[in-house]
Amino acid sequence: MIKKGLICGVSLSLLAGCTSFDRLLEEDGALVGSAHANKTAVPQMTDYDMDWNEFFNKAEDAGTEITSAEDEPEESANEEGQPEEPTDTDEPAEPAESVEPEAIPVVANPGAMNVMVNKFWSLPEGYRPGDLIKPNVPFSFGDENSDRSKLRAEAAESLEVMFQVAKGEGIELYARSGFRSYETQASIFKNEVATFGYEKAVLYVALPGTSEHQTGLAMDITAKSVGLELVEAFEGTAEGKWLSENAHHYGFILRYPKGKTNITGYAFEPWHFRYVGVEIAGEIYAKGITLEEYFGDVREF
Ligand SMILES: [Zn+2]
Q1: pTM of the full predicted structure?
Q2: Average pLDDT of the segment spanning 235-244
Q3: Fewer CB atoms inside 10 Å of the end CB: C or N, the chain?
């Protein structure tokens, strides 16, 4: 499994940019700031299921200036002339000229139910689970047989049970965004680079392979009480509360909890649930920890 001891050849010394961090979260919600030692510091977006251009324009309008950030392994840039060996430094490097994303370590177990994908671990290029199915649950976008309506079989079946039990208790849930392919991520990234240039694109778009949605084990869930949107206010709704208190019984964890941004690299996402299986989910819930902490692979931002 993924253990920090296996990590090598990667410079991951991070600066804690807490000040800009909080400011970004307050102002934009979707942006997270932190620093990547010898990498160009960039902010990052969450995995909001939103219109990318809309998001990008919004960030542009906000005049967001981030001097240090790096959340997903995705936004790192190749740095010509940099030494091969990892170098830890507290001084952010100059923006890279290269347009090729830096390689992120690839997980060895992409098909495992407990695979950990984050800003430091990516899925293989083109990885696509072979058992994606559409769960029989209500979707925010209606009846549509597309990637985003699918999950891997085990997760999909568990999601169905969870939704059914919730409904029996008067909690009406809607699935909004499930599987997201490597190609889709790559296309989004490529378009942003073509439109805005690499330096700006990496600020707002995840590098291909680093979205947990590519595992086929993550589903964004919402409710009519928040207009079927993915918003932080979901936390305070009956549906959001029900999920946060009960999802682990069905093998799902709240992947990006409040107050854990420095560990997950993501802003609080009360709608993003990740299937890891009942046993692990139960332990993570009971201990109030993250997947990173569960595996002992924590690198604070
Ligand atoms: Zn999500």
Answers
A1: 0.69
A2: 98
A3: N
- Rounded to the nearest integer, the mean pLDDT of the chain is 74
Strands 35-36, 252-254: pairing is: unpaired
Report how far residue 187's alpha carbon sits from residue 182's, in angstroms, rounded to the nearest whole number: 8
Query: Is 269 one of the catalytic residues?
Result: yes
What top-level class would CATH report for the domain 4-294?
alpha beta
HEC profile for 69-133?
CCCCHHHCECCCCCCCCCCCCCCCCCCCCCCCECCCCECCCCCCCCCCCCCCCECCCCCCCCCEE
Ligand 1 centroid from CA 52, angstroms: 14
SS3 214: helix
Confidence at residue 265, expressed as pLDDT on a 0 to 100 scale: 85
Residues near ion ligand 1 (CB < 5 Å) are 47, 220, 272
166 SS3 class? helix
Between CA 132 and CA 105 the distance in angstroms is: 25
> Cα-Cα-Cα-Cα dihedral of 32, 33, 36, 41, to 10°?
110
Domain ranges of the chain: 4-294
Q: Comparing 44 with 206, which gets the higher pLDDT?
A: 206
Q: Work out the average pLDDT over 289-296.
A: 98
Beta bridge partners of 36: 14
* Ligand 1 mean position, distance from CA 177 (Å): 7
Residue 85: half-sphere exposure toward Cβ, Cα within 13 Å: 3
